[in-house]
Amino acid sequence: MTPPHEMRPNDTELRRLLDRNEISDVQIRYATGTDSRDWKLFRTCFTDDVEVDFSEGFGQPVMRTTADEWVAGTAPRMESFKATQHMITNQAITFDGDDHATCVAYVRASHHLPNSLGDSDQTVYGYYTNQFTRTPSGWRIARVKLTPLWMTGNFGIFQTALAEESAPSAGKA
């Protein structure tokens, strides 16, 4: 009998390994795009329409939007921080058929904004539950859900970023 570690994977097993790797790469692009402010890279993570659920811990309603609108709204909020660092780990990927998958992954998202009102840092600890769809361009996030478990630091700096996002721009009525 051939030991399992010496067996060659069949096409289905090999396809699944490649799919897992690609989904993991999308998660990494999500974090890298955010932290490097590379919004073109960040956009490559999503299907054209995306459901965004940041309702837990942030009070934002679940919304269905275009990926372009989601990226356009995320960019100024993240750019209002001096720096951010999103670490995504412990990725557990499950498949629902050949073209749909869910990735549950831990996240530690640190936000840094020097200010005169207190601590310059705020960190979210939790996990993402992202639903993926295979597209002609590869695996993409069709639904992103953040579940914060706890937060540390000055939540006010995140509130400031959210307030700046919703405030009218100078020169606009």
SSE arrangement:
Elements: H1 11-36, H2 39-43, E1 46-53, E2 63-66, H3 67-79, E3 83-95, E4 100-112, E5 121-135, E6 138-153, H4 155-166
Parallel strand pairs: 1-6
Antiparallel strand pairs: 1-2, 3-4, 4-5, 5-6
Helix pairs in contact: 3-4
* Order of strands across the main sheet: 2-1-6-5-4-3
What is the average of the pLDDT values?
A: 90
- Please state the overall shape, judged from the principal axes of the Cα atoms: elongated
Query: How many β-strand runs?
Result: 6
**CA-based gyration radius:** 18 Å
The residue fraction in helices comes out at 25-40%
The stretches of 5 or more residues where confidence is low (pLDDT under 50) are 167-173
How far the N terminus sits from the C terminus, by CA atoms, comes to 76 Å
Task: Please trace the helix and strand order, writing H or E for each element.
Answer: HHEEHEEEEH
Helix/sheet category: alpha+beta
Strand content: 35-45%
- Main beta sheet: strand number and arrangement? 6 strands, mixed
Query: Helical segment tally?
Result: 4
